[in-house]
Amino acid sequence: MKYSVLGILGLVLTCHITAPAQAVKSTKAASTKTVTRKKSTSPAAQTTPEPVTSSLVVPSWLPPTAPLQPTATILTDLLNTKLDIRFDWAKQQLIGVATIAVQAHFYPQSQLVLDAKGFDVKSVRLLVKNNKEKNLNYTYDKRKLTITLDRQYTRTEPYEVRISYVAKPNELAAGGSAAITSDKGLYFINPLGTDKSKPRQIWTQGETEANSCWFPTIDKPNQRMTQEITITVDKQFKTLSNGVMTSSKPNADGTRTDVWKQSLPAAPYLTMIAVGDFAVVSDRWHGKAIDYYVEPKFESTARAVFGRTPEMLEFFSTKLGVEFPWEKYAQVAVYDFVSGAMENTTAVTHRQEDTQLTQRDLLDRDDDATIAHELFHHWFGDYVTCESWSNLPLNESFADYAQFLWIEHSKGTNEAALEQQKGLSQYLYEAQSKREPLIRYQYENREDMFDSHSYSKGGRVLHMLRKYVGDDAFFAALNRYLMQNKFSSSELSKLRIAFEEVTGEDLMWFFDQWFMKRGHPEIHVTHTYTNGQVNLHVQQTQDTTFTPLYRLPVTVTVWNNNQPIDHRIVVTKADQVFSLPASQHPSLVKFDAEGQLLGQIEEERTQDELLFQYYHARNYLQKHEAIEQLRPKMGDLSVSGMLRTALNDDFWAVRQNAAEALRKYKGAEGGAVRKELQRVASRDQKSQVRAAAITTLSSFSNEDFSSVYATALNDSSYLVVGSAIKALAKNPSVNTREQISALQDTRNETLLNALADYYALNGTVDQYQWFLRRMPDISDENLYQSYFEDFATLMLRMPPVERDKGLQRLEIYARTGSKFYVRLGAYKALSMMATTSPTLKATMRDIREKEKDQQVKAMFTMLQ
């Protein structure tokens, strides 16, 4: 799964979400709290990793002790599931018959317990010889279906039960998390066709344990089954499910029945269906169907979005030495998906806003990283599955790292380094508020595992492992792990053993410190030169009460006479000095020259050393670091000269870094800098760089660049046009009002957000109506992040008599928004206006009191 987390929790009082692309320095002193802990003899307390003392100063990022979450005990093995299903669109229900083949795992069983959430169970029967059925007694509490068998069955006696039922997902209690925003399993989109902005669709989302909301099963990741799903739909719809379609037959009543069969076993959460009016664009790879399901109006660009899938299949199959094992590979774009994407075996689900792109959208972006992520899951997650959610990084860390591997292969080392930098920054951002082991046997909710630890941190840990053992050993070990555990569930020890068997080395130290312990190294590095040697002083400054003292193999590069010499060292102590030979005072000593370490590194270097680092950088990360470190000194001529040079770098992200670093520049080269930025804003080949230059020009207060912004309003890139609109929001120009007004009916969300920003500061009553009209076109994430706040900012300038309709709309979202953060964003917008209306305070109090999600209710209270 590619999760679409907003980084909201703990940050709800900020006006906008701070982009998690900024590394953070340690705030140890400011991030501690004193607590008193009592000793406990409970099993959960005994496994608590931190010391238990009567009075302990604990960092604020240390989560409270959570309950122990063991792997599910297997009493019965799933073997095969057959479903025969149809739908009641008006009631948003599924009518189904499930035939489930099972057998006792080891001990004889006289009872079968299935997960079945919110069903009407019509009958439960045992299949006996000659296709006859026998009624079975059962009890059902709307969560578990407990079936009493006719006798005891041993592990050598498979049997089948048939269950007739109706699934009612909309009657289930609302649930979900920041990563997976709903858990009702089965979703009807625009079921009555009343919303003209969306097609009618049905789709499912099973992770973590939500597929039991639409068919009875043993909904645990350590189960596996083959499957056959018979789907009856109106003839105008296409269907998609796991495996291959074995038949498709029209029916006399105007419906059609499709049968999908998957003959290889996979975990129940990976089962899916999708129904809709899709266009299907087809490719082939090694004789297997590779299909892309999109709305018909996006058929012409589907191949531009998904068309690198066959090349990815070839690349990953070759790298892993395991050819893609499944029957086919399909990808479908759906509306209102509850996460980023999902790796259902052979049939991946994507959010339509990420993958249904126009040619103009594709000028600014692609979805290759997500496509590679979900594809790699078909080895790590589908072929070999984590045995429990505690071991989720065995799925998600690998899929996250697949993004790096694909980008490295297809776009080069600089793009891969940029991907690595983003991942590190996302983890460090999250680490300000929590630090957990990667493999967590204690958590409150299994969906807590879907965070930047399991994804971004895990991906960076795998990169360090690759750098340590070398490419040949890394991929040989992955091959061994996959082959030894194929079509089964796994835990971390199996991965470690595979690496140890390949390398011949005991790697417990690596797996223990990076997978089983929380936190990361915080390193302070200085160096001196005396008597022909560099003395490199490395200190690990992290609090080792809660974080390990790390063993860190790392490369240090010493530059003499413009020649780099690499030294491989291993940091093992809290305070350590390494002596490295050097014939003269070096121009630069660079710790972690490859930029591989996951951690916070403070490395003392002079301005001259940082300038040398930029001009002699061996990778993107070194250039980026030099630019970031020298930003405060951009008034110095040598630094501004370096930044102007960086505006012409071969790699677009360096040019973007330089453009961003020059914001509010006040140095002696002001005229030359502004001229360079105008050139970049108009002519740089990369839209992200043009957009960054426009944003930087807008940071120069009381300066008129309206001609640049006016030109940019005609740019081919939505991103550039959006940046120009935001620049004009702060410095409006009479000459561009008509151009901006002409964009009001755009369908592009980048422009919609920019227009909302512009009208928040410059709008009138006419734009008040525009906000109301366009609100349904904004994604849930952007409603939260900016749109609601922009709307409230505009309303504060409206006469009170004009505000009622807007306040009513915000109240509806605050009470009934399907995503918790949508309710939160609407409530925050209401809070901005609370001082202007006595009755609004009473409304907000009622919203707080009626909110069912206790976490959201607490956030509401914080916003009072």
Automatic annotation (TrEMBL):
Pfam families: Peptidase_M1, Peptidase_M1_N. The keyword Cytoplasm does not apply. GO terms for molecular function: alanyl aminopeptidase activity; metalloaminopeptidase activity; peptide binding; zinc ion binding. InterPro entries: Aminopeptidase_N-like_N (IPR045357), Aminopeptidase_N-like_N_sf (IPR042097), ARM-like (IPR011989), ARM-type_fold (IPR016024), Peptidase_M1 (IPR001930), Peptidase_M1_aminopeptidases (IPR050344), Peptidase_M1_dom (IPR014782), Peptidase_M4/M1_CTD_sf (IPR027268). It catalyses: Release of an N-terminal amino acid, Xaa-|-Yaa- from a peptide, amide or arylamide. Xaa is preferably Ala, but may be most amino acids including Pro (slow action). When a terminal hydrophobic residue is followed by a prolyl residue, the two may be released as an intact Xaa-Pro dipeptide. Residues 1-23 form the signal peptide. One of its GO terms (cellular component) is cytoplasm. Keywords: Aminopeptidase, Hydrolase, Metal-binding, Metalloprotease, Protease, Signal, Zinc. It is an enzyme of class 3 (hydrolase). GO terms for biological process: peptide catabolic process; proteolysis. Residues 308-514 form the Peptidase M1 membrane alanine aminopeptidase domain. It comes from the Bacteria. Its cofactor is Zn(2+). Residues 28-51 are annotated as: Disordered. PANTHER family: PROTEASE M1 ZINC METALLOPROTEASE, PUROMYCIN-SENSITIVE AMINOPEPTIDASE-RELATED. Belongs to the peptidase M1 family. This is Aminopeptidase N.
